[in-house]
Amino acid sequence: MPKATHFPEAGETESLLKLITNRGAIEFDHEREGAWIEVIRKMDEVYSDLLRYEVDLEHKNAELEEAQAFVTNVIESVSDILIVCDAKGLVQQVNSAFQHTLGRGVADIVGKNIADVIDDADNTRLVPLLKPRSASDVVDGELRFSSEGGSSDLFAINSSPRHDHRGRFIGVVLTGRPIGELRRAYEALHKAHHELQRAQRQLVEQEKMASLGRLVAGVAHELNNPISFVYGNIHTLMRYRTAIVAYLDAVHGKGKAGDLAVQRKSLRIDEILEDFGPLIEGTMEGAVRISEIVKNLRRLSFSKLGEVERVNIERLINTAVLWAVRTKQVRIDLQIEVEPELWISGNEGQLHQVIVNLVENAIDAMRGTELPRLVVSAVRKGSEILFRISDNGPGIDKDHISHIFEPFFTTKRVGEGTGLGLWISYGIVREHGGELSATNGADGGATFSFTLPVA
Ligand SMILES: Nc1ncnc2c1ncn2[C@@H]1O[C@H](COP(=O)(O)OP(=O)(O)OP(=O)(O)O)[C@@H](O)[C@H]1O
Ligand SMILES: [Mg+2]
């Protein structure tokens, strides 16, 4: 700041004083002279105070200018937009990030109502941002501004209220950053996620259709055999019927007369009668096979648990294992390890079927094993019960292990297995909240295991 006035330096007033007293010594008496000296000393003091104040002021001013430059620099450097509004929504100050967003100079913005620079469609979003409220109440929102080239990108806005020293609401400070890019990325992600879900559903659907296809093909294959021999037998029986009718006509004298014995021979009546037994038996067997397959299919078509009850594991395992061992009529080294007083809630009949299936499979697998040994165990592991059925048979063939749970997969001879046992068991265990799995032991034998939640 340039100096406007010249104040005497500290020693200057002293010499001035001397000059006055020397020159006018004769005119002034001593008293007056003392008063003058006093006045001039005071003046000198005031001058030097003023001088000090001026220097101080200059310092303060320089500091203030520096602080202001610093604040301005900071505000201008932030990439977020900044808008200061008064209580009526009139713009008081903006930073260059906001000017840049609008493509307008500060003079073109300051003094305008904030509503005039935002996108018309966002007017309702502006209201809560300008609302008077307490100091700690920061409000979030989203706005688009009306810029030179149309509507701006979407901005995430924080609105902080301003208050004067008496605590009265005097406006808001809005800060914001563009989120259009983020929003677009999020939307793209959202879309991709949807696509993925749809593809997954489609895949599951395709897998379902494929396994349905396999099931239907299996059912067709299984039914084809007994149906074809029932069909063949019926054809033969129809041919036989014609011969028998002709012979009976001869017996009752309705047909052409002749030797009955010759007729009986030429119509092969005796062979026919002999064939009747096996034909009917075969047809019966075919019908039984068909009804068995249908029964199995109906059994596996349940998708619900049915009746749920409290099931005691010790009782379940003992009865199921004994049942399976008794029907298979074999001598095996049987070991049952079950913790007493374990309970689960489920359908006892279905769980019984699972254990029977697994034990029967193990017994079948150990047919060629010298000292067949079966271990069935159920132990509590936290909130679950782990079931294991282990045998010392040949184990599951490496190539088969991924197929054994498929419907109609069997390595047994026709009539010895339908290949539905494991598939049904898998479904039941899953309905009960578990997962049936199979592994081969390190020293041979197969182990089937699953866990179910404790009741
Ligand atoms: N403990 C086991 N050890 C070795 N292989 C096994 C064992 N259990 C099952 N398998 C294999 O899994 C196949 C499928 O078993 P699954 O119980 O589904 O049908 P299955 O026993 O052949 O016929 P079903 O049970 O309908 O009478 C069996 O044919 C057998 O090859
Ligand atoms: Mg089986």
From TrEMBL:
Domain of life, source organism: Bacteria
Biological processes annotated in GO: regulation of DNA-templated transcription
Annotated keywords: ATP-binding, Coiled coil, Kinase, Nucleotide-binding, Phosphoprotein, Transferase, Two-component regulatory system
Name of the featured protein: histidine kinase
Organism: Bradyrhizobium forestalis
Documented EC number(s): 2.7.13.3
Every Histidine kinase domain range: 218-455
One Gene Ontology MF term: ATP binding
The keyword DNA-binding is annotated on this UniProt entry: no
PAC domain: residues covered: 139-191
Coiled-coil ranges per UniProt: 179-209
Limits of the PAS domain: 67-142
PANTHER family assigned to the protein according to its UniProt record, in alphabetical order: SENSOR HISTIDINE KINASE, TWO-COMPONENT SENSOR PPRA
Lineage, top ranks: Bacteria, Pseudomonadati, Pseudomonadota, Alphaproteobacteria, Hyphomicrobiales
Record bears the keyword ATP-binding: yes
Enzymatic reactions: ATP + protein L-histidine = ADP + protein N-phospho-L-histidine
SUPFAM superfamilies, A to Z: ATPase domain of HSP90 chaperone/DNA topoisomerase II/histidine kinase, Homodimeric domain of signal transducing histidine kinase, PYP-like sensor domain (PAS domain)
